Amino acid sequence: MKTYNQFITELNKYEKFLLKQGIKAIKKFNPGQTFKSIKKSALRTTKGLRNDPANPFVSPRREAENLVKQYQKTVPGEKGANIMKTKSNKYVNYDPTRVRQGEDISSAAGTFTMRGQSKQWNKGLDKDLKMLGDTQGRSILKNTGDQHRAIYNAPAFKANQTDRRIDSVFKKNVLGAPTTENLPKGAVPDAAKKIKAKSKIKPFKRNKK
Question: Long-range contacts: 26-29, Cβ < 8 Å, 24+?
Fold first, then answer.
């Protein structure tokens, strides 16, 4: 019987397509290899793309995590990927991806884990917080949403330096909240001006009484 971690995978449609193409390519150039070894090699390569900051087929949250890890590996003064400097100037191992997925419980103290964060679970927690009168907790829970929605948002809790850097990758509005990038004015043509009709289109104005 498969364990939970073996049964649950992160392979999306794009990765499944790459895996199939990779198996075909390896079969063509290495016909002597067994199917098991071919699949293992192609799967390892495909999964490696999840850590690529330039991969456009990962979630915004994973993309931000990849960018921060790249920063930690390339910027002078940093100690490498997944190594975080604490407030007491100590360096500790902290992988934001593994913590978010609930696979690194040891370093998850004070951080947000998405594992099991379903809509039903959220409703139950919101009910408990309401009974306790915790309005701040309910507000955070509402803005975070379930685990599917959360992968499109910045970390709900930014208690450490790594999560604050991940948050800085997301675009912000004037109030400092994450937002999507707005289109510049004039980028979308005015459809009313392009309509060729005998009657003119006039803006509606309410009569003043």
Answer: none
